[in-house]
Fold this protein.
Amino acid sequence: MLGTFEYFVDQAINGVTLGAIYGLVAIGYTLVYGIIGMINFAHGEIFMIGAFVSIIAFLTLGLLGLTWVPLALLLVLIATMMLTAVYGWTLERVAYRPLRRSPRLAALITAIGMSIFLQNYVQLLQGARNKPLQQVISGGFEIMREGDYVVTLSYLQIFILLLTIVLMVVFTLVIGRTSLGRQQRSCEQDRDMAALLGVNVDRTISLTFVMGAVLASVAGLIFLLNYGVIDFYIGFLAGIKAFTAAVLGGIGSVPGAMLGGLLIGLIEALWSGYFTVEYKDVAAFSILILVLIFRPTGLLGTPDIEKV
Amino acid sequence: MLEVTGVETFYGNIQALRGVDVSIQQGEIVTLIGANGAGKSTLLMTICGNPRAASGRIAFEERDITTLPTYEIVRLGIAQSPEGRRIFPRMTVLENLQIGATIAEETYYEEDVQRVFKLFPLLCERQHQRGGTLSGGEQQMLAIGRALMSRPKLLLLDEPSLGLAPRLVAQIFEVIKEINESEGVTIFLVEQNAYHALRLAHRAYVMANGNILLTGTGQELLENDEIRAAYLEGGARKTDVGQSGNA
């Protein structure tokens, strides 16, 4: 069984699902790094808050008697995007903006502080115990069979993949084609010059945090749907993995974050499938170390060599 | 149009402007000449609010803009092509122009792009090339074009001739004249190329050590002995006027 192609496909499907979560969170790291040059270590917590908002929204809808799944999913999606966006915005406003002109170390320590604060905030409000959610999307169809071994693609996985692809396409278009995206890139490349051209830099940075939070909130929803259980601590490991994905892809590069997320997800799933589950994190972080040694700019990152 | 009164600016503890007074009338080309480090670029940036004036007052069209944030100052109709050109290197030429039009009305966009391409046909050829791959002269054209995209009333140009081949310098000055005469844009031009600048300008200021030393019409300054010695005859003879200050 272990050596069959079917088994590989099965693991790869799991890997891609996991990669969707990491990729969506990684974009938030890369965007913020690109525009203000700091690692927002509280970003994993934004992802966790997205998962919590999702579960609260699901339970509320359940209480209200709304059980038609597509509508419930849509409402939960909207709710988690909007509420988590408020958290992302507030985080920048309260914790980072006052430190914009201070040394990087100050911002970094603040980010770690905010991470701890948000974890404890959720723990206090929601309790420390696991929060389970019954399966929302069930069923699937068989795509392969080898003797007794059946490879299924669940409707949940299809939903996750479609949602992630749509989000990434929309997001890429926003960055590449819209005036907001241009303003964002201009701030990334030369903030003072952008201001000289009338770009409201503070607003653009706020919107960057909002975008990152929106994508992370969807990752939180996906996590909840996929694993069915969350707690206040899920942001930590997922955050570090997503950060690894961002570095692997080349921090500052949005396609890099997507690719890095996918790769980390695949590495983790395949390692778990073929070797040992216990060492899956070791495998993921070893890749990070190798990348940092042999290609410090990441897979799609380019060192800044420009004609002056 | 622009009134700068007693402006002082600091970088940390270093004073770069020591009480500068400059006045620019609508429709003029005014040039500011002076040695490296005299504070010319600092003055242009201070007008745009970055760095902020520590004291003094800056008014644009009778309105006090001394404490406005940069993006609001430029929204009033001031555009700058800054020192070092500061093209966005990883954006295409066209995107650089688009970002220049951030504060302009969208309906003007097509027309304005064509106008810039007409002034600088080279930019049209290179419109899909990334800014960072342009030559110095092309970047200079792009910086001026980008500034024009916002339809400014006042255009601040910081050393547009720096590092350019002589033929290109003449061309750039020609364009500046055209922008002023046919489009009525008021121009405040910082230059080291004093001869060209003084011939082009209606009026001029001379700056050293963060102070305005002299002012007059371009013609007057061209004939001024001190100016000739310091800025026009190769700048080889140093007088007090030519000493470089701090910042």
Summary: The longest strand of chain A covers residues 140-146.
